[in-house]
DNA sequence: CCCTAAATGGTAGCGGCTCTCATCTGGCGA
DNA sequence: TCGCCAGATGAGAGCCGCTACCATTTAGGG
């Protein structure tokens, strides 16, 4: 059988190591937390969860880690219109890649995935003149509870 | 021949009038400015342009107008990742409807349109359980100048 | 014209995020 | 194994987009 694919957490930390970064406690904690999420978190949510888990990390370090991970393409930064950035592990393709549905009224964020949509986006990318690094799709509306 | 379709500016102001709103000078100035744009502007850009045109409008009024226009669906609020909201006339379908390409490096925002993408999004909307009111697509990457 | 509720604009305040700097530490070389 | 030090961390000040507040102005029906 093939060797198990490295987890996103291991891949991320090892890649950074390979580039000469040091991976102190704050970065390891944030990467580990992100690796346990299904969908996006805000920086403040990460701060609160890490504190509650007994592994507090400074908010400045959280933002710094997220900036580095964004730059290197390991996390996707998502804006859903509330003025707060959200972050999640980036899966450029494959089973985990998804987009977001946001309730205009209660702010709930849910995930969806669609292959036809991905194909259409891929077709557009080739015609833009940009070297396209990623994409976001946000559907806005009223969730089942709010409509 | 058919009567000319009312402009977005006239449609917007008349619809608000019909709902009992009063359309003072600030609101007329902001709607008029938006009606002259090809793509999205920030609130601060609107403040500066209106001042430069000799028709200054308070920044608070600009945000208030944009909030009302957003609520009523006359403008689309767009977040492209820089922490600043942008706004443009909403065209839910038809020749003016488009999405955005953002350069990660220099921040430039350009528009693109694609029918196949719109069709794919429409197909997704039906399966979500949400009453979907709108959607955003942002492609991120490096523009021709920056790559 | 007048009246009144809606609209406006200056400004204080809020909150997310960034910057600065003193301190700490991962991990390499001796 | 141990000391070194560049990179990492965290507390707190500061920045900036946006909102709240309230005194003043004004749209527009009567
Ligand atoms: Mn996608
Ligand atoms: Mn569209
Ligand atoms: Zn909801
Ligand atoms: Zn660029």
TrEMBL record, chains A, B:
Any GO CC annotation of this UniProt entry: cytosol
Protein localization: Cytoplasm
One of the GO BP terms on file: negative regulation of DNA-templated transcription
Pfam families: FUR
Main location, first listed in the record: cytoplasm
Keywords of this entry: Cytoplasm, DNA-binding, Metal-binding, Repressor, Transcription, Transcription regulation, Zinc
Annotated GO MF terms: DNA-binding transcription factor activity; transcription cis-regulatory region binding; zinc ion binding
PANTHER family: FERRIC UPTAKE REGULATION PROTEIN, ZINC UPTAKE REGULATION PROTEIN
Oligomeric and partner information: Homodimer.
Entry's family note: Belongs to the Fur family.
Protein name per UniProt: Unannotated protein
Species: freshwater metagenome
């Amino acid at each position: 059988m093939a060797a198990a694919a490295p987890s996103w957490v291991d891949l991320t930390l090892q890649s950074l190591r390979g580039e000469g970064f040091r991976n102190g406690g704050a970065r390891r904690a944030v990467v580990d937390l992100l690796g346990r999420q299904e969908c996006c978190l805000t920086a403040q949510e990460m701060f609160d969860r890490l504190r509650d888990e007994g592994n507090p990390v400074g908010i400045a370090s959280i933002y710094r880690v997220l900036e580095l991970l964004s730059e290197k393409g390991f996390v996707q930064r998502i804006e859903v219109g509330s003025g707060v950035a959200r972050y999640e592990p980036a899966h450029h393709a494959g089973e985990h890649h998804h987009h977001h549905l946001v309730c205009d009224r209660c702010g709930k964020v849910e995930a969806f995935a669609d292959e036809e949509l991905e194909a259409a986006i891929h077709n557009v990318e080739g015609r833009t003149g940009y070297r396209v690094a990623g994409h976001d799709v946000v559907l806005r509306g009223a969730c089942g509870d709010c409509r």
